[in-house]
Amino acid sequence: MSSAIEKGVDGKHPTNETDQVRELDHDEYDPIGTAILVGIYFLILVALWIFMYFVEFLGNGPTVTGVLLTVVGLA
Amino acid sequence: MAMRNAYIDQFPKEARVIRAILWSSFLALTIGGTLGLIQGLHRTNVLRFIPSQDYYTVLTAHGVLLVITFTIFFLVGIFTWAVTTSLDRGVKDIRFTWGWYAIMMIGTLLVGVSILGGVVDQIPMNADVLYTFYSPFQAHPAFYVGFVLFVVGTWLAGFDWFRTWWAWKKDNPDERIPLPTFMALTTMLFWYLSSIGVAISILAFLLPWSLGIIDSVNPLLTRTLFWFFGHPVVYFWLMPAYMLWYTMLPKLSGGKLFSDPLARVVFVLFLILSTPVGIHHQYLDPGIAEGFKFIAMTNTMFLLLPSLLTAFTVVASMEHGARQRGGKGYLSWLKALPWRDPAFTGMALAGLMFAAGGFSGMINAGLSINYLVHNSWWVVGHFHLTVGTAAALTFMAASYWFIPQLTGKEIWNRSLGLVQVVLWFIGMTFMSNAMHRAGLFGMPRRTAEPQYQGFDFEPAVGTVAEIDAQVALGAALLTLSVYLFITNMVLTTIGGSTSDAIPDNTYAGTLSGPEDAPVIIDNLKLWTSIAVVLVIIAYSLPLASIIDAGGLFGPGIDPWKPSVVADPSLVLESVRGVMP
Amino acid sequence: MNIHTYEKTWLAVSMVLIVGFIATVTYGAVGPGIAMIDDDGGSIDPDTINDDERFNDPGVTHVGENEYEAAVVAQAWTYTPSEITVPANSTVTFYVTSRDVTHSFTVAGTNVNTMVVPGQISEMTVEFDEPGEYGILCNEYCGAYHHTMEGKLNVVPQDEFDLTELSTDASDEAQLGNQTTINTTVSNDMNYDLETTATLEIGDQQSLEQDVTVPAHGSETVEFAVDTTDLGTGDHDWTVTVDGHEESDTLTVTNATEGGDGDA
């Protein structure tokens, strides 16, 4: 392992140690805030996608259509 | 006082070449940014002091200087840092490193002078062909030669890093590839693969054509070869930003990288999927069957996966830092992040804007919805959030950490740095939201005067004047931000005093380290082979059908030299002349 | 590999998102029937555009009941024709090609948008339900005056639409006592015969009518014989009218003995 990897408070090259008040290792850390943030992002993405595709795009006709529709229309 | 252990202390020779590279990058940013302001004011009709014909020279220079020169110089500088730092060894031969830098510089100068010829009569060259140089536009041969030299320089840079890694591997046969090196190498692998497209386009077609060796090219073929390279290039700009988000942002937040294995998976996915997607830039091109476009869309959509994973891993790493700094609650830990640090704040804001740019990219990736946004100002709004913020703002922010590492000097004014990155965020919010909205009512990109004689645009919300005002204001704030940045960098370099308080040259530790990743993830040969196979699947049939329909050299396509500029009324006469 | 449960969930959610996007686009193709520009238009040598059956006289042609074709040639910095008129409730297939560099053919504010690459023909079928006026613009950089490249698309109510054109061949001058003719060629680009009446009004009194049948995609010349004796000397304005289309000019009748230049 390279010495350049930051070791945290007990490592050889601590940075930001003055601001650090505790150390959390992998097992005691659940990124609940991250889960909330990406969950909100997901909802925004779904809402905007639906708005963009069904309102902005499909509502923006005329649109290029295939021969398929013409055939159906004549039938 | 403990001995200082900054990059310049560990690798003084490499620090010198990286400084030169970053300065080339910053110079391109300053010139390119200034040109952006000229365009922003011109298009919106706020201030027009150049003839509209010259707008396209300015646009070509803005595009090339920012998306090629600024970003890629920064990339080669930062990757050199990443490889040497994480392998803890210098490059094999520093003269070779200076050599590829010199080749890239010569390439840049050739391209720059040939573009400048578009507005300076004394230079008998012209390259008003924009950064995409679609044939049958024909630039001066120097433009193509310069472009090739620049790319060859990057190839040699990649070789420099690979052989540094090979030498390290010999000494450390059982170790996992350190993450920053892994990221640099996987990025270079898809760069080698994708730049073959532009190399063939230029060396087999455009350059011999500009020299008069062949008389015709197939415009759809050279265009397709360009996009074979043209989409991976956007990931090429983005990968250094991703690397900084994975390896620096957790550390600056006061935490550790949440998952080293997933970071590797992300870069492997980019290696595999970056290239077989270029046809999504050609959704509205004739001559390419719909099925090929659908395949390109599917690949593109799956390319969202590594970015979505990155969003989680990077934010979780920041949250880890915030909680180690005492942050509590579901979301109030956000307040515990080091918002006074320009390097942190700039990168975090860049990531936030990338989340927005990611959304408009998802729209761009959609096949049919491309009719709505293709070549509209929406696209310009999109890539100003991606390359123009996710990459550019991350690079500027990271410089507040790197320049002290490379010079041994403290940043001249860190508060000004904070103002600078926030100003970029504000300016881009104005500019990009307005561009996106303008695209939705059909305002085109790449146009000096989007004001037409026969019709007006009809925004559903707001007005054209309001959108123009937001773009002009945004462009002004962004340009001011660039000037504040460059001022800070210049004064740090020439005026700053050497300091012993520069932090050590380290990157983020990990919560889940490489030992948790299966060894197969480090098998670069395997992933490269898969990437090659996917490229063959995505491109062999479209290329074959393009060549079959239009011929390798096209059906007698005459070159169009943009320097031959006529008055439009004369041109209309000539149009009547050729019409039956 | 040690992946946190939250991140595994996010991975699954991301996959749902991706599959959802692809599913939406697939729905767009099979539901509303959106088709992409593809290779159906074929390729063309730009130097042969003037000899091409479709592009040698670009414009709108009637091909089926409510179906039309519109051939458009793009070149720096104009479209030919620069103004396109089609009826509402019609299906129009556009064929667009370029004489020089890459352009686009973009109907502003709609989803009608294609690249126009030299050597290729862009083919796209569009249904126009409602009357309306649209601007056409080029959204691909095509040279120094790219920003001046624009056109117009008019979708007119069906009862205001036809594909009839007039062109007239007539002398400006005739001698008193001689007969002169005003020849009007009526062209019809519909795919059915046009049965109509051509009317000539000249001077104060004369009004001549002729029935004419113009074949589908053809033209017919109507010859009006004008007796100058009835008109007398002087300038006589005339108008030929066919189905609401008009052609006008002036016939000057001179006195034969004065050699045509007397003004007594």
Main features:
heterotrimer; B: 580 residues; mainly alpha; Cytochrome C Oxidase, Chain A; 19 helices; C: 264 residues; mainly beta; Immunoglobulin-like; 3 domains; five-stranded mixed β-sheet; 18 strands; 11% helix; elongated
Give start-end ranges of low-pLDDT stretches of chain C: none
Looking at CATH, the homologous superfamily of chain B is Cytochrome c oxidase-like, subunit I domain
Shape of chain B: globular
Number of strands of chain C: 18
User: Largest chain interface and its two residue counts?
Assistant: B-C, 88 and 79 residues
Instruction: Find the structural class of chain C using helix and strand composition.
Output: mainly beta
Query: How many individual helices of chain C?
Result: 2
Structural class of chain B: mainly alpha
How helix-rich are the residues of chain B, as a percent range? 55-70%
CATH architecture of chain B: Up-down Bundle
- Mean pLDDT score of chain B, rounded? 94
Beta-strand percentage of chain C?
A: over 45%
State the domain count of chain C: 3
CATH uppermost class of the largest domain in chain C: Mainly Beta
Number of strands of chain B: 0
Count of individual helical segments of chain B: 19
Rg of chain B is 24 Å
So, CATH architecture of the largest domain in chain C?
Sandwich
Distance between the termini of chain C: 110 Å
Structure in words:
Chain A is an all-alpha fold. Chain A has 2 helices and 1 strand. The longest helix of chain A is centred in the middle third of the chain and has 26 residues, at 32-57. Chain A is rod-shaped and about 60 Å long. Chain B has one domain (13-564): Cytochrome C Oxidase, Chain A (Up-down Bundle). Chain B is mainly alpha-helical. Chain B has helices at residues 7-10, 12-43, 52-87, 94-116, 141-171, 179-210, 219-230, 232-247, 249-252, 260-273, 290-302, 304-324, 342-365, 370-373, 377-407, 414-440, 464-495, 524-550, 568-578. Chain C has helices spanning 5-30, 228-231; strands at 59-64, 67-75, 78-80, 83-87, 90-98, 103-107, 113-116, 122-128, 132-137, 150-156, 164-170, 173-175, 179-188, 194-202, 206-214, 218-227, 234-242, 245-254. Chains in contact: A-B, A-C, B-C. The interface between B and C is large, with 88 and 79 residues.
